Amino acid sequence: MGTKKVKISSVKRAAHLKSKKTPLSKQQQQKQKQKRDQLKSKREQGQNIFSQKARKRDNLAQRKKHNKLASLGLDPLEEDNEDGDDEMLENVADMLDGDDLALLQANKRKRKAKTTGENDPDQGQSIGLERAYASDTKKEQDAQKIKLDLLPIKSRDGQIITRTTEVDYIPKPKQKKKNEEEEEDDSEEDGDTEYEDSDDDVVNDVEAATAAPVQKLISTTDLLIARQQEIERQKYRIGIICSGLLEKPEDKMRNFHALYELMDEINPASRQANLMAVRKLAIISVTEIFKDILPEYRVGQVDTKMQTLRKATLDRVTFENALLQQFKKFLQKLEQITAQVNRRGGLRTPQTVKLATVAVQCMCDLLVAHPYFNYVQNIAQLLVYMLNCNYAEMRTAVHQCFRTVFSNDKRLEMTLFIVRRINHLIKTKQNNVHVECITCLMGLKIKNVNLDAEKENELKQKKLESHRQRLLSLSKKERKRRKKLTEVNRELEETRAEENKQAKHQKLTEIIKMVFTIYFRVLKNDPTSRVLSAILEGLAEFAHVINLDFFSDLIDVLNRILEDQDELGYRERLHCVQTIFVILSGQGEVLNIDPIRFYQHFYRNMLAVQAGKNHDDFAIILRTLDEVLVKRRRNMSQQRLMAFMKRLLTGSLHLLHNGTLATLGTIKQTFQLTSVLDNLLDTDTTIGSGRYDPELDDPEYCNAASTALYELALLARHYHPTVRRMAVHIAHGVPATGEGALPTEIGKLTSHELFTQFDSTQMAFNPTIPLPKAGQPKLKRGKHLYIRSDFKQEYGKLLQQGKVSQTKDKQTLQIDFFSALQ
After folding, report:
1. Contact 540, 578 (CB under 8 A)
2. What 3-state DSSP class applies to 813?
3. Separation in Å, CA 399 to CA 191, 404, 415
4. Name one Pfam family in it.
């Protein structure tokens, strides 16, 4: 049966919570006890001092009498009662006379007779009967049993069997009533009691403070158990503290100190060492709290003494200032942790390195979550120096953080600051930095930046000046009309945030200038640096925004690197060639440069990539092929174009299926753009002049026109169905319709999209492999073939002549093959 949900109004719930008292902690109980003692002391001080002295004298005499009776073996309480009654009666008898005095003396005699009658045998017998009755009732209670119902059992037949059992009867202990004085004190204190936070015991770690250390011999197992228990206890404590901070951070700001104590190596409160796991948990927990409660804006400084604020505004300003102080203290703690592994003379142990890695990751998370808050520039400056540390895990974390900030930064303020700090770091280290310092700049969003904007602004200013002179020569009516139009246009520009765009464009221009300053400094001063590969990759990425004045010098420097440095890898060579062709395909077309030597470099390094570890580098070749075969196809001769097609198709046999598809996509696009390549589909070898030499590095003189694209026959039997279809499509002359035509969803994909969509590095085959059909294979019964035609008859006779022997469990057939062979 389902439970019925009952809705309670907010008013009833508030009244219920108001009347409900929270349980008192140990500190609250101690405070109440101290208040009670203070009230009692005030009452005693309020009485007359003479009565106090008299009471002290009486108490002293009574105490001496009690000690004397106790030494004689008598009960001092009984003697006190009798003597006190006698003295009181004698004092009253002096004031009475007549019948009252006689009645008082009769009562005195009855009381004496009652006290002396305890030695009477009848009275002793009655006392014995009472004691026996009490002992019998106690025995009956001990032997009394109570029936309790147990859980029912369901039998195999489906019947439910109820069960009961008998247990001993244990009466509930009677609760003693509180003294009236205590009740009065509690009622007086209820109005003035302030309940403290119920989490204070956990925050102040009262449990650890009260636990006394036990000195005994312990084993390794006990140490591990104690360590795990301490970790679980601190986990619970950190969870309580963090939940309180997230619930109401304005009132729980002091709880940050408890977390900061857990981050230190020695806990200042308990004077004990914190476990490494607890320190990491504390750092991560504080980071998550700040990620949740920090505002998205930058907190300003407000002087509350010089100006009056409303109560709500004052509370908000006070909270923001306190939050800012706690955030600053947390960053100082993280800086101290990272300084141990980054500075000279630091304690570099595996534990400190792991802790510093956690601290760096937390700073990265804070920079990504709140890139515009106070002290975030300090975080970025520290992370820039950690980008050049000796630990790869930290460098990877900072590298990924900077790329994320570059892609998400809308204002470009933090991006500009980070790029400036990286430039300063590379300059001070004299280009001796790790590769991550350069590769993180690849995440910059600087695709559409015009570095010639200043010249264009000067031309625009001249045009506006001439337009102004024309306006001065207009009539008064026309001037008023132009003035109104200008005001309307200005308002429209404000609504479109045109000024914002101009400021953003100016920052973006400054960023790209700083990036190219880094690149050109390394190419000029240290062309053999270990970051040369990253520099060349960055130049290839941003070559389209390089200023036209630097084109010729840059091409000369890259050509010198390609020819002089023999130890240069294939990847660096491909980046150099890609950068040069990107320059020549854009604004560099006006330059009078012969790129024949760069064609040779590219043709020589096309077969360096295969289906191995460097298969991902085939994307560099694809981007270069777009510049060479597509954008500059009209500047290439027929022999060179055919040579590139032949070598490209030869290299496709050494690639994975996604690389082969990208190669075929490039060839298909080139076939569609020019009709020169149709000769390569003809197998007649008499068309060209000479013989094709595939080992020659010069594409102009390898005689590619004398060969054909024989690799298409091999690719037509490829294991991938899309590769087979694409190879047949090219072999048929790239038809749009009819036999050999491609489906629309494959034909519209570019070479880069084919390389990405059909990538199987994530263990996903595209298209999906269908499941085999369920069914049993049909077994065909074949005929027996014999070399001798009479073998079947002789073998039948031999089986008939065989003797059958009987054993206990089975029958055996004995055949004499030896006699049959003779």
Report:
1. yes
2. strand
3. 60, 9, 13
4. NOC3p
Are the C-beta atoms of 387 and 424 separated by less than 8 Å? no
pLDDT (mean) for 194-221: 63
Does pTM surpass 0.90? no
pLDDT score of 448 more than 70: no
DSSP 419: H
Query: Buried (b) or exposed (e) across 687-696, using 16+ Cβ within 10 A?
Result: ebeeebeeee
Residues recorded for the chain: 822
Which range of 549-563, 590-604, 751-765 scores highest in mean pLDDT? It is 751-765
Q: What is the distance between the alpha carbons of residues 549 and 554, in angstroms, rounded to a whole number? A: 9
Rounded Cα distance between 90 and 16, Å, is 61
Its sign, for the CA torsion 332, 338, 342, 348, is positive
- CA 152/CA 166 separation, integer angstroms: 16
Residue carrying structure tokens 């108001």: 18
For 165, the 3-state DSSP assignment is strand
Q: At what angle do helices 180-190 and 26-46 cross, to 10 degrees?
A: 110
Q: What 3-state class would DSSP assign to 49?
A: helix
Peptide bond into 249 cis (omega under 30): no
Task: Give the distance from CA 9 to its chain's centroid.
Answer: 40
Q: How far apart are CA 312 and CA 376, in angstroms?
A: 27
Q: Would you call 100 helix, strand, or coil by DSSP?
A: helix
**716: number of Cβ within 10 Å:** 15
**Which phi and psi (to 5°) does residue 543 adopt?**
-65, -25
Q: Which residues contact 380 (CB under 8 A, 6 or more apart)?
A: 367, 414, 417, 418, 421
**Phi and psi torsions of 237, nearest 5°:** -65, -45
Distance CA 101, CA 108 (A): 11
Question: For 669-704, what is the HEC assignment?
Answer: HHHHHCCHHHHHHCCCCCCCCCCCCCCCCCCCCCCH
Q: For residues 372 and 292, what is the distance between their CA atoms, to the nearest angstrom?
A: 15
Q: Is the pLDDT of residue 107 over 80?
A: no
Query: Who's near 649: CB < 8 A, 6+ residues apart?
Result: 663, 667, 709, 711, 712
| Extents of the domains making up the chain | 221-299+311-410, 611-770
Cβ neighbors of 57 (< 8 A, separation 6 or more) are none
The answer to whether residue 266 scores a pLDDT higher than 50 is yes
| Cα torsion angle, 426, 429, 432, 437, sign | negative
Q: Is 768 exposed, middle or buried (0-12, 13-18, 19+ CB in 10 A)?
A: exposed
* pLDDT value for 181: 47
